[in-house]
Amino acid sequence: MTPTIREARQDDLAAVASLFDQYRQFYEQAPDAALALQFITARFAKKESVLLVAQDDAGALVGFCQLYPSFCSVEAKPIYVLYDLFVAPAARKSGAGRQLLLAAEARARADGKARMDLTTAKTNRTAQALYESLGWVRDEVFYAYNRPLG
Q1: What is the pTM of this model?
Q2: pLDDT tens by residue, 24-40
Q3: H or E segment to which residue 68 belongs
Q4: Distance of CA 94 to the CA centre of its chain
Q5: Cβ distance 62 to 96 under 8 Å?
Q6: I need a labelling partner for 6 at 20 to 30 A (CA). Which of 84, 85, 96, 121 fits?
Q7: Closest listed residue to residue 53, CA positions, set 14, 108, 93
Q8: Range of 10's domain?
């Protein structure tokens, strides 16, 4: 299989939402197909993210990545946060993840972004190896924090 990477369309949203639900489960969230569809549909409708998909030879979506526009205040430049990247287990080792990352980089360059940022689980060694093989550099200076507000 040679995946084709393209920007998501309206008629892709149900398939992307299914992948998004699997992505959330990978990060230990309970399955919630309705929430996944609502979230993906809202981001798409409001144009709040760039959604790229990987399509197999049969036309099925097998992966996606989602880029959120943001800014780096220190550099005073726009960036993308690559928050979501997921490839269905059956399509792993097909090159879909690599192709999605390369397409995201090309899109970021075309959109005039200074860089892309991402975070991944410390235990996700497979993803880390992929990122580093493409020139991503792990931050050894800054800690990431979050503050739940729920």
Answers
A1: 0.94
A2: 999 999 999 999 999 99
A3: strand 61-72
A4: 17
A5: yes
A6: 121
A7: 14
A8: 4-133
